[in-house]
Design goal:
Elements: H1 9-108, E1 113-121, E2 124-131, H2 134-146, E3 151-165, E4 171-183, H3 185-199
Antiparallel strand pairs: 1-2, 2-4, 3-4
Helix pairs in contact: 1-3
């Protein structure tokens, strides 16, 4: 017997395919949400971990800032101590320098030459005096230029002939002179070191 289906099978098949499509679409949406949630969770975990690292770095940076400030303070104190030490050494050298300078002038002063004034301005030394002859002045210049470790670059500024009274012995021709020399840095340093050594008590003595 031949059976004829008069129901709208095409509509039923179309409806069934539509229902399957929506089911698949729903499953895909659920799967997409699940994947999105998983990815979001992974990124959230990474962000939380990175925030912890940032917090740790910030705390360490704050500690380093405090240490840097302490180091800067110590550096300022050290610079202040160095400046005070340099000032003390300079004063020590200035205090002892005239003694050593006069001692050096006694060593280098030839016979027949007498000093009237000896002035120091920074590293320049101005000398005025009187000599029995021009040769004595030349000898003084040679001594200061070649034999003195304290003075260098002696220059004759002026020399004039005059007459000096010798009392009952009459008068004598003499020469007034003025010259300039330069104090060596090594001499100033040596004066400061010698003064510091002299002011330091000897070790091991009771």
């Amino acid at each position: 017997m031949i059976t004829i289906n008069l129901l709208p099978h095409r509509e039923a098949a179309r409806k069934k395919r539509r229902e399957q499509f929506f089911v698949h679409l729903g499953l895909a949406a659920v799967a997409g949400l699940a994947v999105s949630a998983a990815i979001f969770g992974v990124y959230e975990a990474r962000m939380a971990e990175q925030q912890q690292r940032n917090g740790f770095l910030q705390s360490e940076i704050a500690k380093l800032d405090v240490q840097i400030k302490e180091i800067a303070t110590l550096q300022q104190e050290l610079d202040g101590l160095k400046a005070r030490q340099a000032a003390v050494e300079s004063l020590q050298a200035d205090r002892n320098l005239p003694v050593y300078l006069l001692n050096e002038m006694v060593k280098q002063l030839p016979e027949g030459v007498y000093l009237r004034t000896l002035k120091q301005e920074d590293m320049a030394i101005a000398i005025e005096g009187v000599a029995q002859s021009q040769e004595r002045v030349s000898e003084l210049l040679r001594n200061l230029g070649n034999h003195s470790p304290w003075l260098t670059k002696p220059q004759l500024i002026e020399i004039t002939a005059t007459t000096a009274s010798l009392g009952q012995r009459g008068q004598r021709r003499v020469f007034n002179f003025s010259l300039r020399a330069t104090l060596t840095k090594e001499a100033a340093t040596a004066a400061g070191q010698n003064g510091a050594a002299a002011s330091t008590p000897a070790a091991g003595k009771v």
